[in-house]
Structure formats: structure tokens, C-alpha cells
Design goal:
Length: 318
């Protein structure tokens, strides 16, 4: 029989176990595969080593796979007159291994997931030694048409390995889906918080703009005994004066907006720091720092303390 005829008959031969299932049970992954016209299969060494936990693929090949079971991609495809598969991952110099080379790497692997497959291989060897051959059981199926390929039952160890791997993959898929749902929920919560903060900031900006507009339009005056007009202190004029005296940060401005009306209307501020902190949303320490800054720049003066221990402040009079 000439070479093309041999390749054709070999390629048409029915595989007792689908090679994809066989490799999946052996490695725990669906690795890339090149199937040749003669029915042989080749696999990227880097893929197999990665799935089996061999960190150094070159060393793993040198230690466990003989030369006749490993090759360069271009050499194998060229032997059949085939071109290099499309895609960046299929390089001409890619190291590939035969199915036997893959099995040798599996036998050298210490991952628990490889144990059922290795036990089946050991069972095959032991059966061949004892009985001289090993054959798969024929599957219990309806009689096929004459000449149709025979169906075989998959070995129990291989079938169990595939079932266990599929169950594990389903569990991982479910965990991934749950993680994605949690991430989406967290993103929605974060977005809602950001929108709420933005609304507060916009409200503060509008309030400051209204105050600034009133500075330009509202001036209350009274006649003095010498006939001069003297501006009465208002919340707006007080805040405007403070802004001219110091660089007002957001926290200082928040405290200023709370205490200025009290100082104008009552003439003094007798409010515990905790109360101001509750009204501004700042810490007691930060409120105290803001008041200290206002005293330093002569915006307010300290006038002792009240009966309950709260500090007393009055407006600075130029």
C-alpha cells in the first residue's frame, strides 16, 4: 500500500475515545490541537505544560518527552504539505508534542486532578502484562448499519474525570457570575453615592452664588449722630469680610456659614463644639481648627466660656 493510501485509511479509522475528551480527562483543560491527515494529533507544549503546572516547559520536555514525540510546528506541517495555521499564537517555531508526549507529561505531573487518568494508564499496563492485551468494552447501543464504526464505552476513570472537571468548571462559572453581579451592584452603589455627593456640592455652590449676589444688592445703613451712614453688620457683609481676610477653604466656609448668622443676630456665639460639628458634618477637632483660624485672622474674638463650658465668641470690631 502506498503512502497516500496508508494515510487515508489511517485517517478514516474510528477513534475508540474522542481525542478531545481523552485530552480533557488527562490534562483538565481543552488545549489546542492539530490533527494530521494520518490521524495523529499534536499539541502546543506550552499549553500542556501550563495546564499541568510545569513552570519550565523546556525543562519538562527535556526531562520527560523523548525527541521522537516533540517537534517544531513548521517541521510537522511541512511533512504533510500543510501551511501554518492562521493566528498569532501559531508560530513557525512553536514546540509541539504528540499524544504520547502529552501522556508522558501527564504521568510526570503531581496534580491531584491527574490521578484518575494515571490510575487508568496503570490499569491498562497491568492488564496488558497479565492478559497480553487491553480492549475497551463495547457500548450498549442499538445495532449500527453494516460497516459503521463500533462504539466503545469510555473507561470509568476517564468518564469520572470528565464529569468531575465539568462540575468544577460549572462551579467556577457560577462563582464568576456571582462575582460579576456583586461588582455590578457595588458599581451601582458607588455611582449613587457619587451622584448624591454631586447634588450636595451643586446645592452648596448655588447657595454661595445667592449669597454673593446679595452682597452686591443688599446694604443696610443707619444714620449716625454726626450724619454719616454706617453699614449695619449683616451675615452677608460679615462673610464677605472674612473672605477678604483669609483664604477660605471648604471646611472653614462650612463653619463660617453656620456661625455668622448667630453672631450677627445674637451678638455672640455660645454653642458647644459638638453642636457645630453636628450641624456642619465635620469632626469636633476640625471645627475647633476652623474657629482657631478665624480667631487668628481677627474674624472673631474669644470671650471666655459659658456656664456649660462652651466657648463664647464675638465678632471682631475694627
Amino acid at each position: 500500500m502506498n503512502e497516500p493510501s496508508k494515510r487515508k485509511s489511517s485517517a478514516e479509522r474510528h477513534e475508540a475515545i474522542d481525542v478531545s475528551d481523552f485530552v480533557y480527562a488527562a490534562t483538565g483543560a481543552r488545549v489546542r490541537r492539530l490533527s494530521m491527515p494520518d490521524g495523529t494529533h499534536w499539541f502546543p507544549a506550552v499549553d500542556v505544560c501550563k495546564e499541568l503546572g510545569h513552570t519550565n516547559s523546556r525543562k519538562a520536555l527535556a526531562d520527560h518527552v523523548p525527541d521522537e514525540h516533540r517537534e517544531i510546528l513548521e517541521t510537522v506541517t511541512g511533512g504533510y504539505g500543510l501551511s501554518i495555521p492562521a493566528g498569532r499564537e501559531w508560530r513557525r517555531d512553536l514546540h509541539i508534542i504528540s499524544l504520547q508526549g502529552l501522556i508522558l507529561l501527564v504521568n510526570a505531573c503531581t496534580k491531584p486532578a491527574c490521578a484518575p487518568f494515571k490510575q487508568w494508564v496503570a490499569e491498562v499496563i497491568e492488564t496488558v502484562q497479565r492478559e497480553g492485551s487491553y480492549s475497551l468494552d463495547k457500548a450498549e447501543v442499538q445495532p449500527a448499519e453494516p460497516g459503521a464504526p463500533i462504539a466503545y464505552a469510555m473507561p470509568e476513570q476517564v468518564a469520572e474525570a470528565i464529569v468531575r472537571l465539568e462540575a468544577h468548571n460549572l462551579q467556577l462559572d457560577e462563582q464568576l457570575a456571582n462575582g460579576q453581579r456583586e461588582t455590578i451592584a457595588l458599581q451601582k452603589e458607588t455611582l449613587a453615592t457619587q451622584q448624591a455627593n454631586l447634588a450636595v456640592q451643586q446645592a452648596m455652590v448655588r447657595a454661595m452664588e445667592r449669597i454673593a449676589d446679595r452682597f452686591d444688592t443688599v446694604v443696610l445703613q443707619r444714620r449716625t449722630s454726626v450724619g454719616r451712614l454706617t453699614a449695619l453688620p449683616t451675615t452677608e457683609t460679615v462673610l464677605a469680610g472674612w473672605r477678604r481676610r483669609l483664604s477660605v477653604t471648604e471646611d472653614v466656609w462650612t463653619v463660617a456659614v453656620v456661625i455668622a448668622p448667630v453672631l450677627v443676630e445674637r451678638g455672640e456665639l455660645r454653642e458647644p463644639l459638638e453642636s457645630i460639628a453636628a450641624r456642619t458634618g465635620l469632626s469636633v477637632h476640625r471645627v475647633n481648627e476652623c474657629l482657631r483660624l478665624l480667631r487668628k485672622h481677627a474674624c472673631i474674638h474669644s470671650r471666655g466660656g459659658a456656664e456649660d463650658g462652651a466657648p463664647v465668641y464675638v465678632l471682631h470690631r475694627a
